[in-house]
Structure formats: structure tokens, C-alpha cells
Amino acid sequence: MTTPRVVVIGGGITGLSLAFTLQESARRLGAPLALTVVDAAPRVGGHAWTTRANGFLIEAGPNGFLNREPHTLALVEALELGARLVEARPEAKRRFIVRDGRLCQVPDGPATLLTTPALSWRGKLRLMGEPFAAGPPAGVEETIHAFATRRIGAEAAEMLVDAAVSGISAGDSRRLSVGAQFPLMTDMERDHGSLVRAMFARRRQGTGPSKLLSFDQGMGTLVGALADRLGNAVQPDSPVLAIERTGDTWRVTMSGSRTLEADHVVVAASARAAAPMVGVLDGRLAAALDRFEYAGLTVVALGYRATDLPRALDGYGYLVTRPEGLASLGVVWESSLFPGRAPEGAALLRVMMGGSRRPEVVKASDEQKVTLAQAELARVMGIEAMPRHVSVFTWPGAIAQYTVGHFQRRADVMDRLGRHPGLWMCGTSYDGVSFNHAVKSGRLTAHRLADRLWGDRRPVDGA
Hints:
Structural class: alpha/beta
Strand content: 15-25%
Helix content: 25-40%
Radius of gyration: 23 Å
Shape: globular
């Protein structure tokens, strides 16, 4: 039996999930597989990276995932990590925004909607009229801001939705496509004619709010388990320069003139990173990949003595509304979410900065970023004390931006890929920007590739 050769380019959570899922399919079949995962960075995991310093457990990227995606839960189960899952404390459901320089609790139900200072009375009444809002305009791909303004009013769109979008995707709600970025919203409107009616219907069906999960030692736990199971198949410090086709064989050229030959090549890196790799192979594919946009993000983690904080960290944290003019998109009160994130008597906060609102912040020095983060924490929370620990993580192209036209851009890439059998692309550039989306994209691609390699013999797993 010929041993299929598969090269996965990109050792982030998409590439690792894909490689492990494919490896497990081969193992259960008893089928041979020559698998290699290459990544340009000196370590794998991409943005999912957990560090430990001065007693603090710090996430460089995502701090958890929602329990609504079966592919992520199936991956956790396959890695036997279920016992290490931890659920965010109940206080995490309480979230705040900054409006007019002060923290205002975001309404999470009828009672808090009536009392919250996050919206004026006019804004509250307009939001309550959501079931009677006009339907979607025909033949128009709406932005998130336009959709929210139409359904819940201009004030709620600006103060709640725009702030949430910046916190989730570091993007601009006035440019992002609601159908691409938040398809659940458009599905709810289509199926029920109202977001409010859809939420009541979901509750009747037993679909309650999702739970935020992480691991006892942070999100790096999952990355470490995947890397351990893949073993020598993982090759960090291996930047790819070109992907070429020679007869029936794919050739991947890396720095130092190293090459790998493969029957299938899966690019699980960003579209931006993939573009130069395929420039010689297919200039039109490279051009299509270059049309995707990204927003950079800086994470400044600050550890304090708990007694140095003027207020209790009684929630998830806060998002910053656009009119405030701050460089911070939001602040997560990490030590209030999960146990073990800070030493006894200490607190850990992560300040998210930059994004599409303030792209220049990502290019500043680490010292400038820390100074700015501390100044804005002092302005919003009144924290004047010096932190006992500081970490800075900068991701220049952190999050893909699904601006209007995303569906066509994705279709253009997939159309060109159809001309190159054996070349695959997946990940958050195309299939959703969340951690769950990254895992799902990798695993679904692994299933499709396994079908191509082994057909009906492929075992079916939990998702």
C-alpha cells in the first residue's frame, strides 16, 4: 500500500487540530500516513499561547472558548482533557461598557435593561421595539452596524454592538458583513422575524446561554497536548517560501533550501501568509488571497495587588465605546474569570489595544503600550498603583476582517483551488474568526481529506 504524504502548513490551532484529526483517522484504520506540520514560528499554537510569570498565568491570545461547538468538545475528548476543563465563574456573565467615562453594566435581561445607564430611555424604548423593526433590504449585504441600527436602533448599535464587535474581532462594525461575521443573527431574523422572538424560541428548545470554558493551566494545555500527540511530525522554525507542482507531486520549499514532497498540501496559515507561497504556482490565486484584510492587536497583561484596585473585579471586564476615543478596545478581568490566574491577594487584567480603530498602537514600542494601558486603566478604573507584573504580546495580523464582500473573496479563492487538486486551504481567514471556528475548520478539512485518502474506510468520530 502506498503511503500518502500530507504536509500541513501552519501550526496554529487550525493546523494542529487538522493534523491530529487526520492522524487519528489513519491510526484507527491502521493505514499508513506520512504527516508533516511546518510552522514559521519557533513554537506552535499561533495565538493560543499561555505563559507563567511571577505566579500569574497569562494568556497571550484567546482565554477560553464557548461550549456550543461540538468539534472543539470532540477534540478535547479525543485528547482526554475533559477533566482539565474549567468553567468561568458566574460573575463572568456580568459585563460592562465605558460610556461618558464611567463603567455601565450591559443589560442581560429585562430588569437590567430598565436600570442600566448604558442606554438612554429613548435608546431603551427603541431596543424594546425590536420585534417590530423593518425587515432586511433586498439584495443588500448589510454591515453589522446597519443591521443593528435597523433592528435595535442607532444608540444601541453604537453603544452595545459596535463596542462588542471591537472587543470580539478588533474590527469596525461599519465595514464588517453581518452575514459573514455573525450569521447566527441573520439566521435568527430570517427564521423568526425578530431577534427577541428567536431568543425566546431558543429558550423553549432548551438552547440556553453558552458557557465559557478554559483549562486548569490555560489554553496552552490544548496546544501542548496536540503537539505531544503529533510528536516529530511537527517542525517549527520552518517558514515556507513556495508551493509548486511537479508532475503528480507537490513540492514545499522552505528557508535554507529545504524541501518536502507531498501528495496533498494543506495551507492552514492566514490568507495573507499563503499569498506569497503560491505566487509562482498561480498568480490569480495569490491575488485573491491578498484581498483579505486583518486587524492587529496588542495585549498588555498587568498584575496588581488586589488591595491596589479601587473597585472589585465583579464581572468579565469591560468594552470601550467608540466615542470615548481610547486606544483600549476592552479590558478582561482575568483573575475573576478562572481560578489560578493570579497569586493569592493579587489580580490580573488584560488590556486589548489597537484593532481597526487605532492601528498605530500596534506599531508602538512595548514601553509606550504599557504606559498607554496604565493611563487608560487609571482613567476608567482609577488604578494609580504600579503593577507588580507586566507582559506585552503583539499580533500584527491577529484577526481576519470579514468586511462586506467576504463571501465573494472566499469563493474566488476556492474557485482557484479547484484548479489545483491536492492543494487545500482552511482556517479563520475563510471559515469564522473564533477559536471554535479555527478548530472546526481544521477538523472538517481533515475529514474531507480523509475521505479523499481512504474513502468509505474512514472512521466517523464524534463531530
